[in-house]
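Thread: "does anyone have the structure for this chain?"

Original post by V.I.:
We have the sequence but no experimental structure in hand. Need at least a predicted one for the grant figures.
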Amino acid sequence: MLTKRIIPCLDIKDNRTVKGINFVGLRDAGDPVDLAYRYAQQGADELVFLDIAATSEKRKTFAELVLRIAEQIDIPFTVGGGITSIEDVSSLLINGADKVSINSAAVKNPNLIDDLVGRFGSQCIVIAIDAKKIEGNWKVHLVGGKVPTDIDLFDWVNQVCDRGAGEILFTSMDHDGTKSGFANKALAKISGQVNIPVIASGGAGSVKHFVDAFTIGKADAALAASIFHYDEIPIPILKEALLEKGISVRPNNA
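Reply from O.Q.:
Generated one for you, C-alpha cells below.
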C-alpha cells in the first residue's frame, strides 16, 4: 500500500507566512524559512510554498526565498505563484524547488501544461485548483480565489490529467481555514476520475479530518496550514494517530 503524505503549506505574502479563512482575513503565521525547517525536522513528507499575491500583483515568485527555504530542508518542495512560462519554472527548479504548482496561468492557457510537461516531465508539474460551490456546482476560481469562472471543476480535472499533469492540488474555498473538514465528496469524485495523485486542501482541523480525506475522499495526500503553524496538531502526533487508525504513513523517524 502506498503511504499517504502529510504536507504543510506555507502561504507567503511580503516574505511572511500568512493564513486566513475562505481566502480572506490573512494573519501572520511566522517566518517561512523557520517554519520550513521545523516541518522537515518534524517528519513532514513534503512542503508546499505558495506566493499567494504573485499573480494578483503581476510579479514572479520570489526565487531568492525559494533558495533560502531549499537550503534548510531535505524533503520534496513544491512552489507556486505567478508562474506563467518555461523560464519561470526553470528558475524555480534551479533555485531548489522539486515541483511547481500552476493555477491561473494553466486555466488561461491550457497549452502551458503540455509545454511544461514536455520540457520538465509530469513529475514536476502540479496543477492547483481553487474551487467553490456556486448554486450547487463546483466552479474553478483564479487569482487566489478572487476571480470566478464558469469552468466546471470536474471537467477541468479531466483536462489537466489528459494534458499530462503529475498531480492535482484541490483546495475547497468553502472549507479553507474553517477547520470543518475537507470537501470529501468532491475529493472522492476527483480521485475516481483520474489516475494521478490528488492532494486534499482546505478544512483540516482534527485527526479525523485527515482520516476522512484518506478513506472517504480517497486522497493521496493531505495539505494543511494553520493547524501546523499554530501547533494545534504537531506532525509527529498526527502521524502516530493516523497509524493507529490504520492509515499508512511514513513513520516520523523514517
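V.I.: this helps a lot. The radius of gyration is 16 Å.
O.Q.: and Residues 32-42 form the longest helix (11 residues).
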